[in-house]
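[audit] Reproducing an earlier prediction to check determinism. Same input, same settings, fresh worker. If the tokens differ from the archived copy the diff job will pick it up downstream; this log only records the rerun itself.
[audit] input (232 residues):
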Amino acid sequence: MATHGELECIICASPISPSTYDTHNSLNKTPLPVLPCGHIQCLPCLRRNFTISLRSLPFQPARCCGRDGIEPSLLRACLALSSRESHAYREKLAEHDARHKVYCFDPRCSAFIPEALRVGGRTARCRRCWARTCLRCGAKAHFGPCGELGEGGGTEIGVQGTVKGESKQRKAPSDDERFRRLSKEKGWKPCPNCKRWVEKTDGCNHIACLCGTHFCYRCGRAPYGNHGECAM
């Protein structure tokens, strides 16, 4: 319990003495962790808040009582985050805040593609494997109209942007074709937002994707809700 002249951590209620923190932009002390909502968290609780956020699936920003997350700059200053921690948090935050989430089509990669790498409103280049993904259907980048959801269409664009010529002879099915056949056989469904494939082994049709989208496994619609018998 805080005494006169002390503040109190909103989480654990431990006393916080302002004299031990930087309240005058000094370079010798840790900044007082005053959050956007006006509450204060002690450093151990703030660190725990940050760690839980970084490990959350789907990702949820570190926050206090409000909907707005804690500014990354405040977390970095108060917790003395390493460059690796700061970079990992900012990447997850950018993915969380993106209105249109795009992921690499290759299931062996599935990395999030930030808006800066989405070229010309049609394709996005993955910075992990350098493959190109169609922004409209989420499949491998291609020329021509998109096919069914997640399947692409037209002529594929290679990783280096070259066009693969069509052969008159029937070729063995590609990895993408084999995967589509397997997903249809197993009943896997793509998330309507990020196109990540999901397998439901048990339970109801309410799916919470890693990108944060809640959708119906049976009909594929999002957000999940009372939209018919499939929601039961």
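[audit] rerun output stored. Observation attached for the diff report: Residues 187-232 form one domain.
[audit] end
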